[in-house]
Each structure stands twice: as C-alpha cells, then as structure tokens.
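Q&A FORM
Asked by: J.P.
Topic: structure of Cobalamin-binding protein

PROVIDED:
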Amino acid sequence: MRRLFLALLLASGAAHAAIDLIDDQGQAVHLAQPAKRIVSLAPHITEMLFAAGAADRVVGAVQYSDYPEAAKKIARVGGYTSVDMEKVAALKPDLVIAWKSGNRDAHLGKLKALGIPVFINEPRRIDDVAKSIAQLGKLAGTEAAGDAAAQAFRKRHAALSAKYSARPPVRLFYEAWNRPLMTVNGEHLISDVIRLCGGENVFAKLPVLAPVVDTEAVLAAAPEAIVASGMGEERPEWLDDWRQWTRLSAVARGNLFFIPPGLIQRHTPRILDGAERLCGQLDEARARR
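REPLIED BY: S.T.
REPLY: Here is the structure written out as tokens.
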C-alpha cells in the first residue's frame, strides 16, 4: 500500500512538474505546470497543437485556423496581425503561442506585460516542424502524443529525402502571390521543401524572407518550372499569365504547377503532403527535358 501511495504521489508530481523551454526567439519560457488554456496566434500553430494532442487545451485562435475541421469551432481573437487584446485577456490563457514572422511585437509586448507567458514559434526548416510539435506537446502536457507525432513526421521526411533530394536539380520560381509578385528566399521553410525535392530556388540568395520581385527578374532567372500557391484550393488563374512569355523554359515545357497553400505555406505536418506534390511535379519537369 505504501509503495502504491508513493507511486501515485510521484505520478501526480510529474503531471504538474514545471516546464522550461527556449523558444524560437531564444527566450526562456517557464510554466509552473502544463498549460491548460492556450491561445494560438497563427493558423499553423493551431494545427500543430491539434497534431500534438492538445486540441482540448486550445481556448482561442486567430482567423483562418481552419484545420482540422474542429479548429473552426475555437473562439476567435482577431487575425494574426490584428490580435484583439481584450478577447485574449477574457479567455484567461495560461499560455499564448505566437508566430515571430506574423504577429506584431507590440501585441506580444502587451501580453507579456499582462503576465501571460508567450512562446514564440518560427519553423525555418522541415525538421523544425517536428521539433515544434514535440515542444507544443510538452507545453500542453501531451508530451507522449507530441513526441509520437514528431517521430512519425521525421520518418516520413527521411523517406522523401532519400527518394528525391539527390535527383537532378530543377531551377524553380515559387510564386506566392501575383500582385505584388512575391516569392521566398533560401531561409524560408518553402525553400527547404524545394531542396528536399531536388529543386533550386532561383531567388534563394535574396536577403528578405518573402521578397517582392518583378517580371523582368523572373525572366532573367530563367526558371525551368514555376510553382504557384495563391489563396484557396483552386489553381489561380494568374498562373497562366506566364504563358505570354513563350521563350521561358517553364512555359515552353508546360511546367506551370500549382500546390494548395494549405499544403505548402503552413508550417504543419501537411507540408509533407505539399512536398510530395512538389516532388512529383519536379519529376514531371525532368521528364520533359
């Protein structure tokens, strides 16, 4: 009986053990116990919390937190660039998880001033997604589920890398949006997906994470393939605007591709679904040489 009592006591203490983690901004975050009321300030963070088994801990999320389906029912606290501070405070969170590139520093400063712990998330490489899922599981007290999801992600990532990363390179222009014409540089997570598939981002060396470029720069870069995302699940009509440039290799060979933004622009497990599509598209481009 005494051993059983001690075992239960130890289990109880472990369940409420303090948590100390370093976030993606290099800041130490301390929780006296796993978070029970979490507010997510980016759609990809909401999705990763679900992946980490912490769905029932999420009490607030920003607009466009729409995956999985159950995420649509979570109370909204504005958009990731326009967080409603009053709504966040009213939810009495014991943790806010924010996105370094998307949320405003002023908003995060106000949350910290209220005494709310803020954990900054910013995946830049594919494996950072697995790391993030494991971290969120630890913060929410669902460490076993988070670690399992992270391990499954890494296994799938390794299989894709073994299959595609050493294939002949394909020079690629990733078109995130058309007006203004936006792309990503080599530090962006999407560029890591491009590398996974044996592709070369033609604008990898630009200093800005999500730079605006012009048509002349794209033509000068002479990509062999153009991949667009856009806003929704449908192929954007503006992808076909490139067809006027008939001498462009990507046009001449029919290498104008589309990937739904939810599969490549969100830092979530689904990015490997987007990677599989991209890898297949670049194989099509190789076959058309």
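FOLLOW-UP: The first strand starts at residue 19 and ends at 22.
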